[in-house]
Each structure stands twice: as structure tokens, then as C-alpha cells.
Amino acid sequence: MVSSDQRRRQLAREKFERQHQRRTQSRKRKQRNQVIAAAVAMVLAAAGAAFATGAFSDDGKDKDKVTQAGKASETPAPPTPSEAKSPEPAMSIDKKAAYSMKLTTNRGPVNIAMEASKTPRTVNSFNALAGKGYFDGTKCHRLTTDGIFVLQCGDPKGDGSGGPGYNIPDENLDGLGKPGGDGTVTFPAGTVAMANTSQPNTGGSQFFLVYKETKLPPSYTPFGKMDAASLKAVEKIAKAGVTGGGADGPPKNTVTVEKATVTKG
């Protein structure tokens, strides 16, 4: 028999997954609209250029010029910034070494220990992004306080749709043990894991800090662990709650990552 607490956790997990899917669908709609707008702009630009060069004049040469204008309008639209795919950073870390990431925030430092041997491509990506200042000035945009207990960060857009333009593969998915009968594993308090789009191998720059034991499907790369002081800082943020009084949304106490640094050892 399923207890009320188990049912509540199950509903929270399902809500967490649904929101991931909605954000993904919203991003795809925005990308599609941007592509359509770019294509229309190119058609209008081609038509305007053809008119400016006399392509629609009645001088006996219209046919060839119209054909040329038509070919120009069929040129594929360039990718929009959200579609553009950047290459995953070249491997530049020592896969056998331990690394640490420090997030200097307006709510205090968050120190995360990372093991490159277990999640080399994830650690390498954070090393490259932090080195470029990618996370500096970003906000932790999502706090969940019922069933799922995480603070999510790493999105430069601040709405859950941003990313670095590339995806990294899932790693260490069995690092928290085998799933139980409900298909979940326990993410202990202090765990740091990659967010994704609810599809395999779609990690980018977003990650979440687990401040209280949470059960989730083993679909999120666990790549780090906060120290005790950092966990307390995140617990304090969570205690203040979500903006508007709900259980899922921007934290009431705004969290800004002022600087992110990754160091070896």
C-alpha cells in the first residue's frame, strides 16, 4: 500500500519532469518561430535587392533576374543563436584528478568537490565554462520545496531555457545505486547534479544543488558534493521559500553567482 508521503513524493517527481518537458517544448517553439522569422526576412531582403537592381523592370531581362532572386530566397536561414551548436570543449583536464568548483554568491560561497574520474566530460565542461566567466552574474532561477528539494542554477537566461550551445553526455548514472521499485534513486543532501531536458545526453550548463534528501529517476548526472558550510547556506535559501509562496519557482531570496572558479585538487 502506498503511503500518503510516498504519493506526495511521486506527484512531486512527476511535476518536476513535466516542467522540464514544458520548458523544452517552449524553447523549441521559440526556435521554430525564430527560424520562420529569419526565413521571411531573407525572402523580403532578396525581393528588395531584386527590386533595387531592376529585377522587376520590363526590359526583356526580367525572367533571368527573377529566377536569380528566387534562388536567393531559397537559401537556408542562418541558425539563430539558440540553435547554433558550439563544439563541446576539448578535453583539457586530468581525468584522474580531483577538482573543486567555488561559486561565489551574494548568499555566501558554495564549494563543490568534483571527481574527474567519474564524470570527466562534465567536469571538463565546467572547467571550460567557468574559465570563460560563463556563470558570472547568473541567477539561480529555480527552487523546489515540496517532494523535490533542489536549487537550480547555471542558466545565463535565468528562465530555465539557456545553455552553452552544446550538450554533454550523461555520466555516472549508477553512482547513486540501483533504482528501487519506484524507479528512483536517492540523491543525498549535498549532492550536485546536472539538469537536462528530460531526454538522455542533454546536459548543458544548468545544474542543481540538493539541500535535502530527494528521490529522482537516475537520469541526472551526479558530479559533485557540497561541503557542510555550503549545504547550510543553501538550506537557508530554501528556508526563505519561493517567490509568491509556492513550492516551485524563483527563490524568494535572490541568489546571484558573482563568480565561478574551478581548480585542480
Explain what the structure shows.
The chain has 265 residues and is of the alpha+beta class. The protein has two domains: 1-84; 89-264, Beta Barrel (Cyclophilin). Helices cover 32% and strands 22% of the residues. The chain has helices at 4-52, 62-73, 120-131, 228-240; strands spanning 98-105, 108-115, 138-139, 142-146, 148-153, 185-187, 191-194, 207-210, 214-216, 222-226, 248-249, 256-264. The strands form two sheets. It has a ten-stranded antiparallel beta sheet. Strands 6-9 form a two-stranded antiparallel sheet. Strand 1 (98-105) and strand 2 (108-115) form a beta hairpin. Helix 1 packs antiparallel against helix 2 (62-73). The longest helix has 49 residues, at 4-52. Mean pLDDT is 81; it is low at 34-84.
Jot down its keywords.
globular, 10-stranded antiparallel β-sheet, alpha+beta, 2 domains, two-stranded antiparallel ribbon, 265 residues
**How many discrete domains?**
2
| CATH structural fold name of the largest domain | Cyclophilin
Q: Would you tell me the overall average pLDDT?
A: 81
List the uncertain runs. 34-84
Going by helix content, strand content and strand pairing, the class is: alpha+beta
CATH superfamily of the largest domain: Cyclophilin-like
Radius of gyration: 23 Å
Helix content: 25-40%
Quickly describe the structure.
Helices cover 32% and strands 22% of the residues. It is α+β, with helices and mostly antiparallel strands and 265 residues long. The strands form two sheets. Strands 3-12-1-2-10-7-8-5-4-11 form a ten-stranded antiparallel beta sheet. Strands 6-9 form a two-stranded antiparallel ribbon.
